[in-house]
Specification:
The chain is of the alpha/beta class. It is about 35% helix and about 15% strand. The radius of gyration is 24 Å and the shape is globular. Bound molecules: iron/sulfur cluster. GO terms for molecular function: 4 iron, 4 sulfur cluster binding; metal ion binding; molybdopterin cofactor binding; oxidoreductase activity.
Length: about 700
């Protein structure tokens, strides 16, 4: 038996794994004891990874050969790679010639490796010439990105996982790490057990497993996080718990923010958020007066039409109290996907450019043009995820190339997404798994290599770059994502009569191009190499001469003048509020043992033992009032669509709340459009992240 070190492909904790394999077959997996994210531990999902690569799964669930549909209603037929590549290049060239490069959109994924991201970024912007490239990370972390940039000057989580052990007070907001980031939660549990007087505050409308551990659970009304943060800051200022020296030396904009929160007394915040006023005072005191306070946050803040405001309001609390830039302190966004961070670093999104450059700055475009040696880049921001599918539904995007993601399940407001896919002249789906909801819309299905078969790097939530290594050959004729992009790019360039613009022959060569784009930037990794990662293990950026575990320790931030910014954004209610006809606030969340659309985790029967079928949850009091019983089929109806699901009663929800796990697609919910039939595409004006965490719905007997 042989062993290969790699990383887990599920969440942003980025645990190291040791893959056991024999004769080209993965036989086992265990935690890598040397990886600083997990020190040998794995959660249920990670420890079952080898079961997603059995011969049975490869035979029945993997996409193993390129396929083509003659018409949308036809069964896909196997074709050669040569034929698929040539026909796709010809059709993209024809659409480009007839309607312009902007008629083509590329939608990629936080599951891709950094090298894949770099390849697709060049394919879209440099080869096809379209600005419309975005990632499913838009649904996940874009509010955290913009929050960091507006407040601290750069998209850089300032903390390390070791801060979980060092903090005296931890505030978890809009996150359930007990289920979504289990290995970090184990570290939090151990830290609490080891530290007398440790404080844990959890802000969440649901009483989750994480909230069960808390000293104080602020079970706020969904969508009212900004009001709560303003109330907490009011209490901090009123009691004199601010850090005046830090505010004067290292920040700008405190007076304007003070003016904004003047009216947000804890009493008012308590009324808006549905909380006890005393709890707000207590939380403010613990957070402000503990020697070190860390916040951990995720989709509850990000997936919101006020996502950026929620992020900046929380960062305001850190800046006002000086809880940043020291051990155990700082605002720490937990990334959902394994390489959302790498996608941000390589700039493979409509609102980003390589090396944390900004599409709004002409000088940044000029630098990318020089780095890539491509003079005619489409130097403007493209459509973000929701905008891209809306454009396709309108007909202005005519071809979509979708990579390693399943928008016909994961995007909000499925009616629009499916109209978009139906209307496109050409849909290319590049995937490892054969039976995703998006597959039935694809004209071409391109088999992609996946975990255990790929080589490259990923970056986890604490800015740590890890190597991903192949243990076995790709299933069937599957190929690495970057290679698929490169081969079709070469045919497009040839068709346009120019030399290849995406010519790198190995993933390491792509990584070196990415590294060059970081020189002199906040994420500079010019001191790193694959050889160093292989010799010394995973490293945190920036890395010029050494790794950087913690940012802003000198009180200087990544803004032009070195000062952080207090961002004064008023509280805005969710985009659609409950009404007499749609009285429930529906949230979406994760299950402990499933991952996203289940294309990988759904191949392991044992992972359904924890929760085996979809359901909508509501508080028993509301069910009793409506004469609804546990297990009864109910219709969940929003302004966009409806679902029929069994009802589960759950005392852990707020009275007017409802909840459906995000993972369930068509195949589990019968002939319906998955749970996103009812969610909304309204998005944050700054981050463009959609409000997946809040939809007004009715729940009635089916
Ligand atoms: Fe994988 Fe995340 Fe579990 Fe670690 S915590 S094993 S990265 S799913």
């Amino acid at each position: 038996m042989a062993e290969t070190k790699s990383t887990c492909p599920y969440c942003g904790v980025g645990c190291g794994v040791v893959i056991e394999h024999e004769d080209g077959q993965i036989t086992g997996v265990r935690g890598d004891p040397d990886h600083p994210a997990n020190f040998g531990r794995l959660c249920t999902k990670g420890s079952n990874l080898h079961l997603t690569a059995t011969p049975v799964v490869i035979q029945h669930q993997r996409l193993r050969q390129p396929q083509k549909r003659a018409t949308r209603s036809a069964r896909p037929e196997v074709v050669s790679w040569d034929q698929a590549n040539r026909e796709i290049a010809d059709r993209l060239l024809a659409i480009r010639a007839a309607h312009g490069p902007e008629s083509i959109g590329v939608y990629i994924s936080g599951q891709l490796l950094t090298e894949d991201y770099h390849a697709f970024n060049k394919l879209a912007r440099a080869v096809i010439g379209t600005p419309h490239i975005d990632s499913n990370s838009r649904l996940c972390m874009s509010s955290a990105v913009v929050g960091y940039k507006q407040s601290l000057g750069a998209d850089a989580p300032p903390c390390s996982y070791e801060d979980i052990e060092l903090a005296d007070c931890v505030l978890v907001s809009g996150a359930n790490p007990a289920w979504a980031h289990p290995i970090l939660f184990r570290r939090l549990e151990a830290a609490r057990a080891a530290k007398t007087g440790h404080k844990l505050i959890v802000i969440d409308p649901r009483r989750t497993e994480t909230a069960e551990l808390a000293d104080l659970h602020l079970q706020l009304r969904p969508g009212t996080d900004v009001a709560l943060c303003h109330g907490l800051l009011h209490a901090v200022i009123w009691q004199g718990w601010t850090a005046p020296g830090f505010i004067a030396e290292s920040t700008e904009g405190f007076d304007e923010l003070k003016e904004l929160v003047r009216d947000w007394t804890p009493a008012r915040a308590a009324q808006v958020c549905g909380l006890d006023e005393a709890d707000i005072w207590r939380a403010a005191e613990w957070f402000a007066t503990s020697p070190s306070s860390l916040s951990l946050y995720c989709q509850g803040l990000n997936q919101s039409s006020s996502g950026t405001a929620k992020n900046t309001a929380l960062i305001n609390l850190h800046l006002a109290t000086g809880q940043i830039g020291k051990p155990g302190a700082g605002p720490f966004s937990l990334t959902g996907q394994p390489n959302a961070m790498g996608g941000r670093e390589s700039g493979g999104m409509a609102t980003l450019l390589p090396g944390h450059r900004d599409p709004g700055r002409p000088e940044d475009w000029a630098e990318v043009a020089t780095l890539w040696n491509v003079p005619d880049l489409p130097d403007r921001r493209g459509h973000t995820a929701v905008e891209m599918f809306e454009a396709a539904a309108r007909g202005s995007i005519r071809a979509l190339w979708i990579v390693c993601t399943n928008p016909a399940q994961s995007m909000p407001d499925q009616a629009v997404v499916r109209r978009a896919l139906d209307r496109c002249e050409l849909v290319i789906l590049q995937e490892a798994f054969a039976h995703t909801a998006t597959a039935k819309y694809a004209d071409y299905l391109l088999p992609a290599a996946t975990w255990g078969e790929k080589e490259g790097t990923v970056t986890n939530s604490e800015r740590r770059i890890s190597r991903v290594r192949p243990a076995v050959p790709p299933a069937g004729e599957a190929r690495a994502d970057w290679r698929i992009a490169r081969d079709i790019a070469a045919l497009i360039d040839a068709g346009l009569g120019r030399p290849p613009r995406l010519a790198a022959a190995t993933p390491e060569a792509l990584w070196l191009e990415h590294r060059a784009a970081t020189r002199g930037r906040d994420l500079d990794i010019t001191g790193l190499s694959w050889a160093k990662l292989d010799a010394d293990g995973p490293q945190q950026w920036p890395f010029v001469n050494a790794a950087t575990p913690r940012l802003y320790t000198d009180g200087r931030f990544a803004t032009a003048d070195g000062r952080a910014r207090f961002v004064a954004k008023p509280y805005q209610p969710p985009a659609e509020e409950p009404s007499p006809g749609l009285p429930f606030a529906l949230t979406t969340g994760r299950l402990r043992d499933q991952w996203h659309g289940m294309s990988r985790s759904g191949s392991v029967p044992g992972l359904f033992a924890h929760e085996g079928r979809p359901a909508v949850r509501m508080h028993p009091a509301n069910a009793a009032r409506r004469k609804l019983a546990e297990g009864e089929l109910v219709t969940v109806r929003s302004r966009r669509g409806e679902l029929v699901l069994p009802l589960k009663l759950d005392e852990n929800l707020p009275p007017a709340g409802a909840d459906i796990a995000m993972h369930w697609g068509d195949e589990f919910i019968g002939a319906q459009d998955g749970i996103n039939a009812v969610t909304q595409g309204a998005f944050c004006p700054d981050s463009k992240q959609p409000e997946l965490k809040f939809s007004a719905v009715a729940i009635e007997p089916a």
